[in-house]
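Appendix B, example 12.
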Amino acid sequence: MAFRDPLYRLYELRLERELAGGTLPNHVGVILDGNRRYAKARGLASVSDGHRAGAEVIPHFLDWCFELGIPYVTLWLLSTDNLTRDDDELTHLLDIIVATVRGIAQAPSTTTRRLRVTAVGVLDALPDDVRTSLQEACDATADNNGFHVQIAVGYGGRKEITDALRSWMRHQAADGATLADAAETLVPADIGDHLYTTGFPDPDLIIRTSGELRLSGFLLWQSAHSEFYFCDPYWPDFRRVDFLRALRDYSRRARRFGR
């Protein structure tokens, strides 16, 4: 990340000028994809080295968002599908996630930026020590409200919508409603009010790295009107110019919000 070739910097400045005065997203979601393939392509000793390389990019990415005035960020670090695996890679990945989230919460810039960390996903399915560490990071930043970073761990969009509907139905039953009555009154906002991410604005822009052209279940409900940007670099190779290109692409689109 310290690479500062003069031509690279000139191109970066050009992108910044193109963005000046343009519309930037309020909330950026990122599917941090390609760590495993990065490790293989670079001949690293283990897949975990690829995950570590990807984790090192995260603080830089948050710097870029803060500097550009983007107040909401969601990072998908682990899916529900990943949780079904029982191997050393998952154990090491969870350790890397904990260290990364702790680092974000404890960084000197966290206080000055009033950065708040929240974790979303099937947190009860995480090992106790991992869940406790994530909660401690969230609690440590709970009073901040300037820059919001949402960490999706053990997250899957289908699971989130299913859990939201279950939660809503339980509330209806507690209020004495029958299943038929509840079905008659159900509107989309009811489900939205019970999502893991309630209180967070829907993402304006979702970025996926590594060249894959799919969402894989990321923020399925919330992304109904999002703009999508897919790029080739593996996440550990993702640079500021790649982010600026995504923002330039976003600023050139005419958003219609389904209309």
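The first strand starts at residue 27 and ends at 31. The radius of gyration is 19 Å.
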